[in-house]
Amino acid sequence: MSTASKQRLMAEYKTLDKEKWLNIELSDGGIFKWVIGIMVINPESAFDGGYFQTEMTFTDKYPYSPPTFKFLRPIYHPNIYPDGRVCISILHPPGEDEQSGELASERWSPLQGVESVLRSVLLLLDDPEIASPANVDAGVMYRDNRALYNSKAQDAVKASKKDIPAGFVMPTTLESAPPEKITEDDNFWNESGGEEDDFGASDSSGDDFGMDDDEEEEGEDEEEDEA
């Protein structure tokens, strides 16, 4: 197995293992196979209160090839197949697909990671794509009978609680929301060491142009002489 892939996955594991909305276990496949309990703690979600056990597997080509992802307990949802696999663009191989119309920016790239996959899946749970559903019946129900669909979602939540590990306590609130997508602008400011104003002066300087106190006093003296 690729050492680079192992190092990348271990770094991601150490970061995500601190999140309260996830419970990650490494299975017999070691770092290349994760069992992840995804917790939905959101009163506005149809799947609020769920502990959804999922599985992600990786190859030694990661992160250049996407992982696989599936729910171990299938969910009645427009974009989830009966075997638990999720139909979502981010898990599709890199590059544009003329047949599906998916852009390269919507599909997998080495800049993506476990975090972005999980975040995308969470968003998909509450905002399904019903134009080309993996589960047609679920798509029709979501469109035409939202109350019944929400009831089925809560049935999935109740079933999911059977997968909560013994001794594990589900959080009732989250100290922080699920991770936001990092943009190129975020990376720029993080690497530059702090945001600056339009003139290149640090916001913490205490004035607009970064003049020190002596320079300000000299300017005031000159104004008094002219007067």
TrEMBL record:
Residues 4-162 form the UBC core domain. One of its GO terms (cellular component) is SCF ubiquitin ligase complex. One of its GO terms (biological process) is G2/M transition of mitotic cell cycle. Transmembrane segments: none annotated. One of its GO terms (molecular function) is ATP binding. InterPro entries: Ub_conjugating_enzyme (IPR050113), UBC (IPR000608), UBQ-conjugating_AS (IPR023313), UBQ-conjugating_enzyme/RWD (IPR016135). Residues 169-227 are annotated as: Disordered. It comes from the Eukaryota. The keyword ATP-binding applies. Residues 183-227 have a biased composition (Acidic residues). Keywords: ATP-binding, Nucleotide-binding, Transferase, Ubl conjugation pathway. PROSITE patterns: UBC_1, UBC_2. The active site is at C87 (glycyl thioester intermediate). Belongs to the ubiquitin-conjugating enzyme family. This is Ubiquitin-conjugating enzyme E2 2. It comes from Glarea lozoyensis (strain ATCC 20868 / MF5171).
